[in-house]
Design a protein that fits this description.
- The structure is a single chain.
- The protein has helices spanning 4-24, 39-44, 51-72, 89-96, 104-110; strands at residues 76-78, 84-86.
- The protein is mainly α.
- The chain has a domain at 39-127.
- Strands 1-2 form a two-stranded antiparallel ribbon.
- Strand 1 (76-78) and strand 2 (84-86) form a beta hairpin.
- The protein is elongated and about 75 Å long.
- The termini are far apart.
- The model has no long low-confidence stretch (mean pLDDT 85).
């Protein structure tokens, strides 16, 4: 029991060292990046779903679309307003959001996410 003080000091130093990155960076997160919309997206004024929904859930929506298109053969999506859209990343989403670096890559890099969309989809399908 003589070493009780040494053990407590060592434990305190260990806990401080392990938790240092958390408390040192608390409240210092980088602001979310601003994305640049293309002229066509600005002119359309309407996306498939509201902006807040798309920012938080676009990957889930794209996964649902992929499942419906590849497994069920469904091609049309009707949003909450009753407007119909073709379920296509290449020809619906990229029609307005065609600049990958200015739109997609900024947020994906900020969130440290590596989407696999581009394994199959090309950047500008209508341009080729």
């Amino acid at each position: 029991m003589k070493d009780k003080k040494k053990i407590l000091v060592g434990l305190a130093v260990f806990i401080a060292a392990i938790t240092f990155p958390f408390w040192y960076n608390m409240g210092k997160a980088a602001p979310a990046p601003e994305v640049e919309l293309t002229a066509k997206a600005k002119a359309a004024k309407v996306c498939v779903m509201p902006t807040a929904y798309m920012q938080a859930n676009h990957m889930q929506l794209l996964d649902v679309w992929r499942h419906k298109v590849t497994r069920n053969g469904e091609r049309m999506f009707v949003n909450a307003d009753g407007k119909m859209f073709n379920m296509s990343l290449s020809n619906t989403c990229l029609d307005c959001h065609s600049n990958y670096e200015q739109f997609c890559a900024r947020c994906h890099n900020y969130a440290s996410v590596s989407p696999y969309c581009w394994d199959c989809h090309i950047d500008n399908p209508k341009g080729e």
